[in-house]
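input
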Amino acid sequence: MKTLKEIFGYVLGGVLFVALIPSIMWFASGQPDIFPIETVRLIIAIVLAAAGLFTSVWSIVYMRCKGNGNPMDAFGHEVAPRTVHLMTDGPYRLSRNPMLTGTFVYLSGVCVWLWTWQSVAVFVIFIAIMLIQVRTEEKRLRRDFGDEYENYCRRTGRFLPF
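output
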């Protein structure tokens, strides 16, 4: 049952962050042509999207291997088994939320690709929702890890290394 819950968590995260949010951005933008796109904009979009996906996947794999758990905790509800250790190294030494930082970078690439104000509006709404999620998660982490988490917060930024 635990494995099924983990698989569900990974599939849900992938569908939500990699496919659903960009699809909403595309629909909100009036379904613009995906091709052709100016070469420079295409390169920037691909670099951002690839860097964001790499960061998110690195964070997920690292959390699974080192934290013996999963990232899927949505607004205080466990969607997949939580980590049993506070993650403070690997990608988590650069950011307290490297998965989400990667997602933000990936979606920035989608915004560059679509190049519409509507895609940016969807992105901003997504960021606002995720900030609420992060604050909820931080409360749980403070409760679960206490001073260890407080020390980690003092030396590591929420999304960026500073």
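quick obs: Residues 2-155 form one domain.
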